[in-house]
Design brief:
Elements (H helix, E strand, L loop, with lengths): L6 E4 L3 H13 L4 E4 L2 H6 L6 E4 L2 E2 L2 E2 H10 L5 E6 L4 H10 L1 E4 L4 H13 L2 H4 L2 E7 L3 E7 L1
Helix pairs in contact: 1-5
């Protein structure tokens, strides 16, 4: 039986997807890339976590998360987006972790790695992402 990827990357910008992929490969993290909502919905899961762009060509990353989470395809997500819409950012943070694209692919991968390592059932810890004016992101664990 094939080993399932622990991480699903949903990103329509091929340059960003390649950057995320290089960083994940360097960390030896198994992942699957989908370039659209449709591809992500057809991906064979389950996945432990996902990095999801909020603005996909065929739908909303937030809607995608809801559908994948409801079907138990993913548990948690990092939303990696260039959006500046405060309501959308708030919704993303309510469902997972928002990382602005301006913070760079490494910030999104670091957040995803922490999600993969986190065991909420035993640790009682929750990740919190603090972003500053779309230029940087600091990721900390809180109790």
């Amino acid at each position: 039986m094939a080993r399932q990827a622990p991480l699903l990357v949903v990103e329509d910008d091929s340059a960003v997807a390649r950057a995320l992929g290089r960083l994940l490969k360097n960390r030896k993290i198994v992942f699957k890339v989908a370039a659209s909502m449709e591809e992500a919905l057809n991906a064979r899961g389950p996945f432990q976590a996902a990095i999801i762009d909020l603005e996909l060509p065929d739908g909303s990353g937030l809607d995608l998360f809801e559908r994948l989470h409801a079907s138990q395809t993913i548990e948690v997500a990092v939303f990696f987006s260039a959006t500046t819409d405060s309501a959308e950012i708030e919704q993303a943070n309510a469902r997972g972790l928002f990382i602005p694209k301006q913070a760079g692919a490494e910030a999104a991968v670091n957040a995803a790695v922490l999600l993969l390592e986190e065991n909420p059932a035993t640790s009682g810890e929750r990740l919190r992402v603090q972003t500053t004016l779309t230029t940087s992101a600091a990721i900390t664990k809180t109790k």
